[in-house]
Amino acid sequence: MTGTQPLLKVEDLRVSYRVNGETTEAVHGASFEVHAGEVVAIVGESGSGKTTTAHAIINLLPANASTDAGSVVFAGADLAKLTRKEWQGVRGKEIGLIPQDPTAALDPLQRVGVQVAEALTIHRLEPRKVARQSAVRLLAESGIPDPETRARQFPHQFSGGMRQRVLIATALAASPRLVIADEPTSALDVTVQRQILDNISALTAERGTAVLLITHDLGVAADRADRIIVMRSGDIVEHGPVANVLGNPQHAYTRQLIAAAPGLNPRRLRPAVAGGVSTDVPGALSDPAGLPRAAAAAAEPLVVATDLLKLFHLPRTAKGPKTLTAVNNVSLQIGRRETLALVGESGSGKSTVARLLLRLDRPTSGSVHFDGVDLAAARGEQLRQLRRRFQVVFQSPYASLDPRFSVADSVGEPLRAFGEGTTADRRARVASLLEAVHLPATYGARQPVELSGGQRQRVAIARALALRPDLVVLDEAVSALDVSVQAQILALLAELQAKDGLSYLFISHDLAVVQQISDRVAVMRGGELLEEGPAGVVLERPAHEYTRELIAAVPGRGRQG
Could you give the domains of the chain? Predict the structure, then answer.
Protein backbone atom coordinates (compact mmCIF):
# COMPACT_ATOMS: atom_id res chain seq x y z
CA MET A 1 0.00 0.00 0.00
CA THR A 2 3.07 2.27 0.07
CA GLY A 3 2.67 5.34 -2.09
CA THR A 4 -1.13 5.23 -2.24
CA GLN A 5 -3.47 7.58 -0.43
CA PRO A 6 -5.26 5.80 2.45
CA LEU A 7 -9.05 5.72 2.41
CA LEU A 8 -9.11 6.18 6.20
CA LYS A 9 -6.37 7.84 8.20
CA VAL A 10 -6.56 8.10 12.00
CA GLU A 11 -3.91 10.18 13.74
CA ASP A 12 -3.28 10.55 17.48
CA LEU A 13 -6.92 9.78 18.37
CA ARG A 14 -7.72 10.33 22.05
CA VAL A 15 -11.13 9.53 23.51
CA SER A 16 -12.26 9.83 27.11
CA TYR A 17 -15.36 8.95 29.15
CA ARG A 18 -16.83 10.82 32.09
CA VAL A 19 -18.28 8.44 34.70
CA ASN A 20 -19.43 9.48 38.18
CA GLY A 21 -17.81 12.88 37.79
CA GLU A 22 -14.41 11.46 36.84
CA THR A 23 -12.80 11.51 33.39
CA THR A 24 -10.98 8.42 32.12
CA GLU A 25 -9.10 8.29 28.85
CA ALA A 26 -10.12 5.15 26.94
CA VAL A 27 -8.03 5.58 23.76
CA HIS A 28 -4.50 6.97 24.08
CA GLY A 29 -3.27 8.48 20.83
CA ALA A 30 -4.25 5.77 18.33
CA SER A 31 -2.86 6.14 14.80
CA PHE A 32 -3.41 3.84 11.82
CA GLU A 33 -4.46 3.73 8.17
CA VAL A 34 -6.89 1.64 6.11
CA HIS A 35 -6.52 1.51 2.33
CA ALA A 36 -9.16 0.76 -0.30
CA GLY A 37 -9.65 -2.97 -0.74
CA GLU A 38 -7.84 -3.75 2.51
CA VAL A 39 -9.04 -5.62 5.59
CA VAL A 40 -7.54 -4.34 8.83
CA ALA A 41 -8.41 -6.16 12.06
CA ILE A 42 -8.31 -4.53 15.49
CA VAL A 43 -7.96 -7.17 18.18
CA GLY A 44 -7.62 -7.02 21.94
CA GLU A 45 -9.38 -7.65 25.21
CA SER A 46 -12.87 -6.46 26.01
CA GLY A 47 -12.50 -2.88 27.19
CA SER A 48 -9.25 -2.33 25.27
CA GLY A 49 -10.74 0.51 23.23
CA LYS A 50 -11.55 -1.35 19.98
CA THR A 51 -15.22 -0.40 19.75
CA THR A 52 -14.60 3.09 21.16
CA THR A 53 -12.11 3.70 18.34
CA ALA A 54 -14.61 2.45 15.75
CA HIS A 55 -17.44 4.60 17.12
CA ALA A 56 -15.21 7.67 17.31
CA ILE A 57 -14.47 7.30 13.59
CA ILE A 58 -18.16 7.56 12.67
CA ASN A 59 -19.11 10.05 15.41
CA LEU A 60 -21.36 7.64 17.31
CA LEU A 61 -19.84 7.94 20.77
CA PRO A 62 -22.26 8.05 23.73
CA ALA A 63 -23.12 11.33 25.43
CA ASN A 64 -20.58 10.83 28.23
CA ALA A 65 -17.69 10.34 25.76
CA SER A 66 -15.62 12.95 23.96
CA THR A 67 -12.90 13.04 21.32
CA ASP A 68 -10.18 15.09 22.98
CA ALA A 69 -7.51 15.12 20.29
CA GLY A 70 -6.47 13.73 16.95
CA SER A 71 -7.98 13.60 13.48
CA VAL A 72 -10.00 11.19 11.35
CA VAL A 73 -9.72 11.70 7.60
CA PHE A 74 -11.92 9.70 5.22
CA ALA A 75 -11.43 9.92 1.44
CA GLY A 76 -9.49 13.16 1.96
CA ALA A 77 -12.22 14.80 4.08
CA ASP A 78 -11.80 15.69 7.77
CA LEU A 79 -14.78 13.98 9.42
CA ALA A 80 -14.55 16.27 12.45
CA LYS A 81 -15.73 19.17 10.27
CA LEU A 82 -18.93 17.48 9.05
CA THR A 83 -22.27 18.93 10.05
CA ARG A 84 -25.03 16.72 11.39
CA LYS A 85 -26.76 16.74 8.01
CA GLU A 86 -23.53 15.88 6.20
CA TRP A 87 -23.02 12.92 8.56
CA GLN A 88 -26.39 11.56 7.45
CA GLY A 89 -24.99 11.26 3.94
CA VAL A 90 -21.85 9.49 5.14
CA ARG A 91 -23.14 6.91 7.61
CA GLY A 92 -24.68 3.96 5.81
CA LYS A 93 -23.87 5.25 2.32
CA GLU A 94 -20.11 5.86 2.48
CA ILE A 95 -19.29 4.10 5.77
CA GLY A 96 -21.36 1.10 6.80
CA LEU A 97 -21.50 -0.21 10.36
CA ILE A 98 -22.22 -3.76 11.45
CA PRO A 99 -22.87 -3.31 15.20
CA GLN A 100 -22.11 -5.94 17.80
CA ASP A 101 -25.56 -6.51 19.25
CA PRO A 102 -28.49 -7.22 16.91
CA THR A 103 -31.07 -7.14 19.70
CA ALA A 104 -30.29 -3.51 20.48
CA ALA A 105 -29.80 -2.45 16.85
CA LEU A 106 -33.01 -3.81 15.30
CA ASP A 107 -36.41 -2.14 15.79
CA PRO A 108 -38.69 -4.74 17.42
CA LEU A 109 -41.79 -3.08 15.93
CA GLN A 110 -40.65 -3.08 12.29
CA ARG A 111 -40.60 -6.04 9.94
CA VAL A 112 -37.12 -7.17 9.00
CA GLY A 113 -37.50 -6.48 5.28
CA VAL A 114 -38.57 -2.89 5.96
CA GLN A 115 -35.48 -2.30 8.11
CA VAL A 116 -33.10 -3.60 5.45
CA ALA A 117 -34.86 -1.60 2.73
CA GLU A 118 -34.57 1.56 4.82
CA ALA A 119 -30.81 1.61 4.18
CA LEU A 120 -31.63 2.14 0.50
CA THR A 121 -34.62 4.46 0.78
CA ILE A 122 -33.16 6.80 3.41
CA HIS A 123 -30.27 7.63 1.05
CA ARG A 124 -32.66 7.78 -1.94
CA LEU A 125 -30.80 5.03 -3.77
CA GLU A 126 -33.99 3.15 -4.68
CA PRO A 127 -37.74 3.81 -4.49
CA ARG A 128 -39.56 2.05 -1.66
CA LYS A 129 -41.07 -0.77 -3.76
CA VAL A 130 -37.77 -1.62 -5.46
CA ALA A 131 -35.90 -1.36 -2.16
CA ARG A 132 -38.14 -3.98 -0.54
CA GLN A 133 -37.40 -6.34 -3.42
CA SER A 134 -33.69 -5.62 -2.98
CA ALA A 135 -34.04 -6.33 0.75
CA VAL A 136 -35.15 -9.88 -0.03
CA ARG A 137 -32.08 -10.33 -2.25
CA LEU A 138 -29.77 -8.90 0.40
CA LEU A 139 -31.22 -11.23 3.05
CA ALA A 140 -30.63 -14.20 0.74
CA GLU A 141 -27.03 -13.11 0.09
CA SER A 142 -26.49 -12.90 3.84
CA GLY A 143 -27.47 -16.54 4.24
CA ILE A 144 -31.08 -16.28 5.45
CA PRO A 145 -33.24 -19.12 4.10
CA ASP A 146 -36.67 -18.44 2.60
CA PRO A 147 -35.97 -14.69 2.51
CA GLU A 148 -39.38 -13.72 1.12
CA THR A 149 -41.13 -15.16 4.18
CA ARG A 150 -38.47 -13.98 6.60
CA ALA A 151 -38.63 -10.40 5.28
CA ARG A 152 -42.20 -10.20 6.58
CA GLN A 153 -41.25 -11.37 10.07
CA PHE A 154 -40.19 -9.36 13.12
CA PRO A 155 -36.76 -9.57 14.81
CA HIS A 156 -38.06 -11.59 17.79
CA GLN A 157 -38.95 -14.38 15.35
CA PHE A 158 -35.29 -14.76 14.36
CA SER A 159 -32.50 -16.57 16.17
CA GLY A 160 -29.56 -14.50 17.43
CA GLY A 161 -27.37 -15.51 14.52
CA MET A 162 -30.07 -14.73 11.97
CA ARG A 163 -30.61 -11.28 13.51
CA GLN A 164 -26.91 -10.65 13.06
CA ARG A 165 -27.19 -11.58 9.39
CA VAL A 166 -29.94 -8.96 9.04
CA LEU A 167 -27.51 -6.31 10.34
CA ILE A 168 -24.89 -7.45 7.85
CA ALA A 169 -27.40 -7.22 5.00
CA THR A 170 -28.34 -3.70 6.13
CA ALA A 171 -24.73 -2.53 6.37
CA LEU A 172 -23.85 -3.79 2.89
CA ALA A 173 -27.07 -2.58 1.22
CA ALA A 174 -25.72 0.75 -0.06
CA SER A 175 -22.32 -0.66 -1.13
CA PRO A 176 -20.30 1.63 1.17
CA ARG A 177 -16.61 2.36 0.55
CA LEU A 178 -15.69 1.39 4.13
CA VAL A 179 -17.39 -1.16 6.36
CA ILE A 180 -16.72 -1.07 10.09
CA ALA A 181 -17.57 -4.55 11.29
CA ASP A 182 -17.81 -4.64 15.10
CA GLU A 183 -17.74 -8.35 16.00
CA PRO A 184 -19.83 -9.15 12.88
CA THR A 185 -19.75 -12.92 13.25
CA SER A 186 -19.53 -13.48 17.02
CA ALA A 187 -23.14 -14.73 17.06
CA LEU A 188 -22.82 -16.96 13.99
CA ASP A 189 -22.04 -20.64 13.60
CA VAL A 190 -18.81 -21.41 11.78
CA THR A 191 -20.34 -22.33 8.42
CA VAL A 192 -22.45 -19.15 8.20
CA GLN A 193 -19.52 -17.21 9.63
CA ARG A 194 -17.40 -18.44 6.73
CA GLN A 195 -20.17 -17.58 4.26
CA ILE A 196 -20.57 -14.04 5.62
CA LEU A 197 -16.82 -13.44 5.73
CA ASP A 198 -16.54 -14.81 2.19
CA ASN A 199 -19.21 -12.29 1.15
CA ILE A 200 -17.29 -9.46 2.80
CA SER A 201 -14.06 -10.66 1.14
CA ALA A 202 -15.78 -10.77 -2.26
CA LEU A 203 -17.11 -7.25 -1.70
CA THR A 204 -13.60 -6.05 -0.86
CA ALA A 205 -12.08 -7.65 -3.96
CA GLU A 206 -14.79 -6.67 -6.45
CA ARG A 207 -15.59 -3.11 -5.34
CA GLY A 208 -12.43 -2.01 -3.59
CA THR A 209 -14.32 -1.72 -0.30
CA ALA A 210 -12.20 -1.44 2.81
CA VAL A 211 -13.07 -3.29 6.00
CA LEU A 212 -12.14 -2.33 9.56
CA LEU A 213 -12.78 -5.56 11.42
CA ILE A 214 -13.21 -5.36 15.21
CA THR A 215 -12.92 -8.87 16.64
CA HIS A 216 -11.87 -10.84 19.68
CA ASP A 217 -11.44 -13.96 17.50
CA LEU A 218 -7.81 -14.17 16.43
CA GLY A 219 -8.74 -17.12 14.20
CA VAL A 220 -11.02 -14.84 12.16
CA ALA A 221 -8.36 -12.12 12.06
CA ALA A 222 -5.75 -14.66 10.99
CA ASP A 223 -7.91 -15.94 8.14
CA ARG A 224 -9.38 -12.67 6.90
CA ALA A 225 -7.20 -9.65 7.63
CA ASP A 226 -4.31 -8.18 5.67
CA ARG A 227 -3.01 -6.34 8.71
CA ILE A 228 -3.64 -6.63 12.46
CA ILE A 229 -3.70 -3.88 15.09
CA VAL A 230 -3.38 -5.11 18.67
CA MET A 231 -4.90 -2.87 21.35
CA ARG A 232 -4.59 -3.08 25.12
CA SER A 233 -6.00 -0.60 27.65
CA GLY A 234 -6.44 2.07 24.99
CA ASP A 235 -2.98 1.72 23.45
CA ILE A 236 -1.91 0.17 20.17
CA VAL A 237 0.86 -2.15 21.35
CA GLU A 238 1.63 -3.84 18.03
CA HIS A 239 0.59 -3.66 14.40
CA GLY A 240 1.68 -5.06 11.08
CA PRO A 241 0.97 -7.70 8.43
CA VAL A 242 -0.87 -10.77 9.72
CA ALA A 243 2.03 -13.12 9.07
CA ASN A 244 4.44 -10.91 11.04
CA VAL A 245 2.17 -10.26 14.02
CA LEU A 246 0.98 -13.85 14.46
CA GLY A 247 4.13 -15.58 13.26
CA ASN A 248 6.62 -13.42 15.13
CA PRO A 249 4.81 -11.36 17.80
CA GLN A 250 7.01 -8.73 19.44
CA HIS A 251 4.81 -7.77 22.41
CA ALA A 252 4.15 -10.04 25.37
CA TYR A 253 0.45 -9.21 25.26
CA THR A 254 0.19 -10.33 21.63
CA ARG A 255 1.84 -13.61 22.57
CA GLN A 256 -0.68 -13.99 25.41
CA LEU A 257 -3.62 -13.48 23.02
CA ILE A 258 -2.27 -16.03 20.55
CA ALA A 259 -1.73 -18.60 23.31
CA ALA A 260 -5.35 -18.14 24.48
CA ALA A 261 -6.97 -18.39 21.03
CA PRO A 262 -8.70 -21.80 20.75
CA GLY A 263 -8.69 -21.79 16.94
CA LEU A 264 -4.94 -21.19 16.80
CA ASN A 265 -4.00 -23.39 19.78
CA PRO A 266 -6.43 -26.30 20.22
CA ARG A 267 -6.24 -27.77 23.71
CA ARG A 268 -8.55 -29.42 26.23
CA LEU A 269 -9.57 -27.99 29.58
CA ARG A 270 -11.40 -31.24 30.36
CA PRO A 271 -10.26 -34.87 30.34
CA ALA A 272 -11.16 -36.43 27.01
CA VAL A 273 -13.85 -39.10 27.18
CA ALA A 274 -13.93 -42.09 24.88
CA GLY A 275 -16.09 -45.12 25.42
CA GLY A 276 -17.12 -43.91 28.86
CA VAL A 277 -13.57 -43.81 30.24
CA SER A 278 -11.55 -40.68 30.87
CA THR A 279 -8.41 -40.72 28.74
CA ASP A 280 -6.64 -37.73 30.26
CA VAL A 281 -5.87 -36.80 33.85
CA PRO A 282 -6.93 -39.86 35.90
CA GLY A 283 -9.48 -39.04 38.56
CA ALA A 284 -9.15 -35.29 38.05
CA LEU A 285 -12.85 -34.84 37.46
CA SER A 286 -14.43 -37.83 39.15
CA ASP A 287 -17.64 -37.92 41.14
CA PRO A 288 -17.51 -38.07 44.96
CA ALA A 289 -17.62 -41.87 44.90
CA GLY A 290 -14.55 -42.01 42.68
CA LEU A 291 -16.45 -43.07 39.56
CA PRO A 292 -15.25 -41.60 36.26
CA ARG A 293 -17.47 -38.71 35.22
CA ALA A 294 -18.81 -40.43 32.10
CA ALA A 295 -19.78 -43.54 34.06
CA ALA A 296 -21.60 -41.53 36.72
CA ALA A 297 -23.42 -39.54 34.03
CA ALA A 298 -24.53 -42.68 32.23
CA ALA A 299 -25.78 -44.29 35.44
CA GLU A 300 -27.79 -41.32 36.72
CA PRO A 301 -28.71 -38.81 34.01
CA LEU A 302 -29.81 -35.45 35.35
CA VAL A 303 -31.84 -34.56 32.25
CA VAL A 304 -33.65 -36.95 29.92
CA ALA A 305 -35.42 -35.55 26.85
CA THR A 306 -37.45 -38.01 24.77
CA ASP A 307 -38.82 -37.50 21.23
CA LEU A 308 -39.08 -33.71 21.48
CA LEU A 309 -41.14 -32.12 18.71
CA LYS A 310 -41.74 -28.37 18.47
CA LEU A 311 -43.80 -26.70 15.74
CA PHE A 312 -44.13 -22.95 15.13
CA HIS A 313 -46.73 -21.28 12.94
CA LEU A 314 -45.27 -18.78 10.46
CA PRO A 315 -47.10 -15.85 8.85
CA ARG A 316 -49.68 -16.83 6.26
CA THR A 317 -48.51 -16.60 2.64
CA ALA A 318 -50.36 -16.58 -0.68
CA LYS A 319 -50.14 -20.37 -0.64
CA GLY A 320 -51.74 -20.59 2.80
CA PRO A 321 -50.44 -21.07 6.37
CA LYS A 322 -46.93 -22.37 6.94
CA THR A 323 -45.53 -24.38 9.82
CA LEU A 324 -41.91 -24.53 10.90
CA THR A 325 -40.65 -27.73 12.50
CA ALA A 326 -38.03 -26.25 14.83
CA VAL A 327 -37.26 -29.51 16.68
CA ASN A 328 -37.99 -32.87 15.12
CA ASN A 329 -38.06 -35.92 17.44
CA VAL A 330 -34.89 -35.07 19.37
CA SER A 331 -33.86 -37.33 22.26
CA LEU A 332 -30.84 -36.63 24.46
CA GLN A 333 -29.50 -36.97 27.98
CA ILE A 334 -27.27 -34.81 30.18
CA GLY A 335 -25.39 -36.65 32.89
CA ARG A 336 -24.46 -35.34 36.31
CA ARG A 337 -21.18 -33.40 36.25
CA GLU A 338 -21.18 -33.68 32.48
CA THR A 339 -20.93 -31.14 29.68
CA LEU A 340 -23.04 -31.84 26.61
CA ALA A 341 -22.24 -29.50 23.73
CA LEU A 342 -25.06 -28.79 21.29
CA VAL A 343 -23.70 -27.50 17.98
CA GLY A 344 -25.12 -26.64 14.58
CA GLU A 345 -26.07 -23.77 12.33
CA SER A 346 -28.04 -20.78 13.52
CA GLY A 347 -31.69 -21.77 13.27
CA SER A 348 -30.91 -25.49 13.60
CA GLY A 349 -33.03 -25.76 16.77
CA LYS A 350 -30.32 -25.60 19.45
CA SER A 351 -31.81 -22.74 21.47
CA THR A 352 -35.33 -24.14 21.04
CA VAL A 353 -34.17 -27.44 22.57
CA ALA A 354 -32.69 -25.47 25.47
CA ARG A 355 -35.96 -23.62 26.04
CA LEU A 356 -37.82 -26.92 26.10
CA LEU A 357 -35.37 -28.40 28.62
CA LEU A 358 -35.80 -25.37 30.89
CA ARG A 359 -39.59 -25.34 30.47
CA LEU A 360 -39.44 -21.85 29.06
CA ASP A 361 -41.50 -23.33 26.24
CA ARG A 362 -43.61 -26.46 25.94
CA PRO A 363 -42.98 -29.16 23.35
CA THR A 364 -45.65 -29.96 20.79
CA SER A 365 -45.00 -33.56 21.81
CA GLY A 366 -42.36 -35.49 23.74
CA SER A 367 -41.20 -35.19 27.34
CA VAL A 368 -38.46 -33.73 29.53
CA HIS A 369 -37.53 -35.24 32.90
CA PHE A 370 -35.26 -33.34 35.27
CA ASP A 371 -33.80 -35.47 38.07
CA GLY A 372 -36.65 -37.92 37.50
CA VAL A 373 -39.43 -35.29 37.59
CA ASP A 374 -41.63 -34.73 34.55
CA LEU A 375 -41.35 -30.97 33.98
CA ALA A 376 -44.65 -30.83 32.12
CA ALA A 377 -46.45 -32.14 35.22
CA ALA A 378 -44.67 -29.87 37.74
CA ARG A 379 -46.78 -27.09 39.22
CA GLY A 380 -46.61 -24.32 41.83
CA GLU A 381 -43.94 -24.55 44.50
CA GLN A 382 -42.52 -27.80 43.07
CA LEU A 383 -41.84 -26.07 39.75
CA ARG A 384 -40.44 -23.01 41.52
CA GLN A 385 -37.96 -25.10 43.48
CA LEU A 386 -37.00 -27.01 40.34
CA ARG A 387 -36.31 -23.75 38.53
CA ARG A 388 -33.64 -22.74 41.04
CA ARG A 389 -31.77 -25.93 40.08
CA PHE A 390 -31.35 -24.96 36.42
CA GLN A 391 -30.12 -21.58 35.25
CA VAL A 392 -29.35 -20.08 31.86
CA VAL A 393 -26.82 -17.66 30.42
CA PHE A 394 -28.32 -16.16 27.28
CA GLN A 395 -26.50 -15.26 24.11
CA SER A 396 -26.94 -11.49 24.40
CA PRO A 397 -25.71 -9.79 27.58
CA TYR A 398 -27.28 -6.56 26.34
CA ALA A 399 -30.80 -8.01 26.40
CA SER A 400 -30.45 -10.18 29.51
CA LEU A 401 -29.42 -7.46 31.98
CA ASP A 402 -31.98 -4.96 33.27
CA PRO A 403 -30.57 -1.50 32.41
CA ARG A 404 -32.13 -0.06 35.58
CA PHE A 405 -30.26 -2.48 37.87
CA SER A 406 -26.70 -2.07 39.07
CA VAL A 407 -24.35 -4.99 38.54
CA ALA A 408 -24.71 -6.00 42.19
CA ASP A 409 -28.51 -5.88 41.91
CA SER A 410 -28.47 -8.08 38.79
CA VAL A 411 -26.16 -10.69 40.30
CA GLY A 412 -28.02 -10.70 43.62
CA GLU A 413 -31.52 -10.83 42.11
CA PRO A 414 -31.83 -14.67 42.23
CA LEU A 415 -30.68 -14.67 45.86
CA ARG A 416 -33.35 -12.12 46.80
CA ALA A 417 -36.03 -13.94 44.80
CA PHE A 418 -35.45 -17.16 46.74
CA GLY A 419 -34.78 -15.51 50.12
CA GLU A 420 -31.19 -16.74 50.35
CA GLY A 421 -29.37 -15.57 53.49
CA THR A 422 -29.26 -12.14 55.08
CA THR A 423 -28.51 -8.90 53.28
CA ALA A 424 -24.89 -9.16 54.40
CA ASP A 425 -24.71 -12.79 53.21
CA ARG A 426 -26.04 -11.80 49.80
CA ARG A 427 -23.62 -8.88 49.55
CA ALA A 428 -20.69 -11.20 50.30
CA ARG A 429 -21.95 -13.79 47.81
CA VAL A 430 -22.21 -11.15 45.07
CA ALA A 431 -18.65 -9.97 45.73
CA SER A 432 -17.43 -13.57 45.59
CA LEU A 433 -19.24 -14.20 42.29
CA LEU A 434 -17.81 -11.07 40.70
CA GLU A 435 -14.34 -12.13 41.75
CA ALA A 436 -14.98 -15.60 40.31
CA VAL A 437 -15.73 -14.15 36.88
CA HIS A 438 -12.73 -11.80 37.10
CA LEU A 439 -14.51 -8.51 37.73
CA PRO A 440 -13.43 -6.18 40.55
CA ALA A 441 -15.89 -5.95 43.43
CA THR A 442 -16.15 -2.20 42.73
CA TYR A 443 -18.00 -3.06 39.49
CA GLY A 444 -21.00 -3.92 41.64
CA ALA A 445 -21.95 -0.25 41.71
CA ARG A 446 -21.88 0.15 37.93
CA GLN A 447 -24.81 0.10 35.50
CA PRO A 448 -24.83 -2.22 32.46
CA VAL A 449 -24.40 0.78 30.13
CA GLU A 450 -20.99 1.38 31.73
CA LEU A 451 -19.72 -2.10 30.80
CA SER A 452 -18.35 -3.56 27.60
CA GLY A 453 -20.10 -6.50 25.96
CA GLY A 454 -17.67 -9.00 27.43
CA GLN A 455 -17.98 -7.51 30.91
CA ARG A 456 -21.78 -7.71 30.70
CA GLN A 457 -21.57 -11.39 29.80
CA ARG A 458 -19.39 -12.07 32.81
CA VAL A 459 -22.08 -10.44 34.97
CA ALA A 460 -24.69 -12.73 33.39
CA ILE A 461 -22.56 -15.79 34.15
CA ALA A 462 -22.10 -14.68 37.76
CA ARG A 463 -25.87 -14.28 38.14
CA ALA A 464 -26.50 -17.77 36.73
CA LEU A 465 -24.15 -19.27 39.32
CA ALA A 466 -25.66 -17.38 42.27
CA LEU A 467 -28.00 -20.18 43.45
CA ARG A 468 -25.41 -22.95 42.92
CA PRO A 469 -27.60 -24.76 40.35
CA ASP A 470 -27.27 -28.37 39.19
CA LEU A 471 -27.61 -27.49 35.49
CA VAL A 472 -26.45 -24.38 33.66
CA VAL A 473 -27.48 -23.85 30.07
CA LEU A 474 -24.85 -21.72 28.34
CA ASP A 475 -26.35 -20.39 25.12
CA GLU A 476 -23.35 -18.96 23.23
CA ALA A 477 -22.18 -17.73 26.62
CA VAL A 478 -18.56 -17.04 25.63
CA SER A 479 -19.13 -15.83 22.06
CA ALA A 480 -19.04 -12.18 23.20
CA LEU A 481 -15.77 -12.54 25.10
CA ASP A 482 -12.26 -11.79 23.93
CA VAL A 483 -9.96 -14.80 23.81
CA SER A 484 -8.06 -14.17 27.04
CA VAL A 485 -11.23 -13.66 29.10
CA GLN A 486 -12.87 -16.52 27.22
CA ALA A 487 -10.02 -18.79 28.30
CA GLN A 488 -10.46 -17.63 31.91
CA ILE A 489 -14.22 -18.24 31.84
CA LEU A 490 -13.87 -21.69 30.28
CA ALA A 491 -11.28 -22.64 32.89
CA LEU A 492 -13.62 -21.26 35.56
CA LEU A 493 -16.53 -23.33 34.24
CA ALA A 494 -14.38 -26.48 34.31
CA GLU A 495 -13.20 -25.65 37.83
CA LEU A 496 -16.73 -25.02 39.12
CA GLN A 497 -17.95 -28.21 37.51
CA ALA A 498 -15.29 -30.26 39.27
CA LYS A 499 -15.85 -28.46 42.59
CA ASP A 500 -19.66 -28.19 42.69
CA GLY A 501 -20.77 -31.07 40.46
CA LEU A 502 -22.41 -28.83 37.86
CA SER A 503 -23.84 -30.11 34.61
CA TYR A 504 -23.68 -27.95 31.49
CA LEU A 505 -25.61 -27.77 28.26
CA PHE A 506 -23.10 -25.82 26.21
CA ILE A 507 -24.67 -24.36 23.06
CA SER A 508 -22.05 -23.01 20.71
CA HIS A 509 -21.15 -22.40 17.10
CA ASP A 510 -17.43 -22.39 17.99
CA LEU A 511 -16.13 -25.94 17.64
CA ALA A 512 -12.68 -24.92 18.83
CA VAL A 513 -14.24 -23.95 22.17
CA VAL A 514 -16.45 -27.05 22.19
CA GLN A 515 -13.34 -29.18 21.82
CA GLN A 516 -11.92 -27.64 24.99
CA ILE A 517 -14.89 -27.95 27.30
CA SER A 518 -17.24 -30.78 26.30
CA ASP A 519 -17.58 -34.43 27.32
CA ARG A 520 -20.09 -35.24 24.58
CA VAL A 521 -21.17 -33.44 21.42
CA ALA A 522 -24.59 -33.48 19.75
CA VAL A 523 -24.86 -32.06 16.23
CA MET A 524 -28.13 -30.53 15.01
CA ARG A 525 -29.29 -29.39 11.60
CA GLY A 526 -32.77 -28.38 10.48
CA GLY A 527 -34.26 -29.35 13.85
CA GLU A 528 -32.89 -32.90 13.74
CA LEU A 529 -30.15 -34.56 15.74
CA LEU A 530 -27.64 -35.85 13.17
CA GLU A 531 -24.85 -37.17 15.33
CA GLU A 532 -24.06 -37.59 19.04
CA GLY A 533 -21.18 -39.13 20.95
CA PRO A 534 -18.00 -38.52 22.98
CA ALA A 535 -16.31 -35.24 22.02
CA GLY A 536 -13.10 -36.89 20.91
CA VAL A 537 -14.97 -39.24 18.59
CA VAL A 538 -17.36 -36.70 17.05
CA LEU A 539 -14.77 -33.94 16.56
CA GLU A 540 -11.87 -36.14 15.44
CA ARG A 541 -13.71 -38.92 13.57
CA PRO A 542 -17.09 -37.41 12.56
CA ALA A 543 -19.55 -39.82 10.96
CA HIS A 544 -21.76 -37.23 9.24
CA GLU A 545 -20.69 -35.04 6.30
CA TYR A 546 -22.29 -31.98 7.89
CA THR A 547 -20.13 -32.40 11.02
CA ARG A 548 -17.07 -32.56 8.79
CA GLU A 549 -18.17 -29.28 7.15
CA LEU A 550 -18.49 -27.62 10.57
CA ILE A 551 -15.00 -28.72 11.59
CA ALA A 552 -13.48 -27.58 8.29
CA ALA A 553 -14.99 -24.11 8.76
CA VAL A 554 -13.35 -23.42 12.16
CA PRO A 555 -11.43 -20.13 11.70
CA GLY A 556 -7.68 -20.14 12.20
CA ARG A 557 -7.21 -23.79 11.41
CA GLY A 558 -5.47 -22.90 8.16
CA ARG A 559 -2.65 -21.27 10.13
CA GLN A 560 -1.96 -24.14 12.49
CA GLY A 561 1.39 -25.72 12.18
Answer: 37-43+82-260 (3.40.50.300), 263-283+290-311+319-389+470-561 (3.40.50.300), 399-468 (no CATH)
